[in-house]
Amino acid sequence: MKICIVTTTIESYENNRLLNAGKELGHDIKIVGLDDVVIEIDSTNTGAYVNGENLKDYDIVTITIQKKRALILSNLLQQLGVKIFDNNLTLNKFQLDKISDAVTFYKNGLSFPKTVNVADEEDFRDTCNEIGFPIVVKHSVSSTGKDVFKLNDLSEVDEFLEKLEEEHRNTSSYILQQNIPFSQSLRIMVINGKIAGAAKKEMESKKNSAIPVEILTGVELSSSTQKLALDAVKSINMHIASVDILIGEDGKEYLLDVNRTPGFEKLEKVGSADYAKLILETAIEKAV
Q1: Fewer CB within 10 Å: C terminus or N terminus of the chain?
Q2: pLDDT for 45 beyond 80
């Protein structure tokens, strides 16, 4: 089978593993960059080209990015009759948005930390006080832990707001989230409706940041934690995702995030699952 993977990180560990897995399974597989794709539309010669090669000549095109241009490409290729796996990008018409995620989690009755989005700076300060310190601040469209901060008091809030003003950014682009004291932090990979693997994250704190230095170790998941992870991925209609869950000091489970373009390099080091093979097999099975 002739397969093309469209990505923004051609040289990543994950894409190299997918390339090798595809070859081992006997497929003719290629990885191209989204920015290298030329979309050409006219009445006689419509297609998406990379170095003159038309992507409509592939059996399956896998799109691993959740962005607007990826959505346009996916829609075009489907119109041209190409089988596409885009992790339901076209179905959801989705771009990364943690505010929408929080609404979806609430709608589906999933347990997650208190989350607030405000546009006014004074409301931002008041909300921080109301939720309590320390408080976690995340960009609403951040991914892989980028643009996430842990603020410990109002002086740090004011410093954060000053930085936003200097960078001409607005508080409406951020969410405020309750900081959960926890006994365990878990990363769980869900592929094709099943738990493919999981790990416990040991965390080393950084000043003014909610991003830990991660050390992953194997872990056995309770049935309730497995259910929360599976329900979270199902709620946002994904075939492949990783889920971050905290086990609070009170024993309660909290859903933190669902990552639609998950990395698996660290997870592979603590388990036996062949994530690349599972992802590729899922892409072939679910392509439409």
Answers
A1: C
A2: yes
Per-residue CA distances from 29 to 21, 60, 285 (Å): 9, 10, 16
As a CATH number, domain 182-259 is 3.30.470.20
Structure tokens at 241: 């995702």
Helix (H) or strand (E) holding 39: strand 38-40
Please report which helix (H) or strand (E) contains residue 30, including its range.
strand 28-33
User: What is the pTM assigned to this prediction?
Assistant: 0.90
Query: In whole angstroms, what is the distance from residue 261 CA to residue 65 CA?
Result: 7
- Poorest-confidence range of 160-164, 200-204, 209-213? 209-213
Among the listed residues 225, 236, 239, the one whose alpha carbon sits nearest the alpha carbon of residue 193: 239
In CATH, the number for domain 2-92 is 3.40.50.20
Cα-based torsion angle of the residue sequence 150, 184, 204, 187 in order, rounded to the nearest 10 degrees: -90
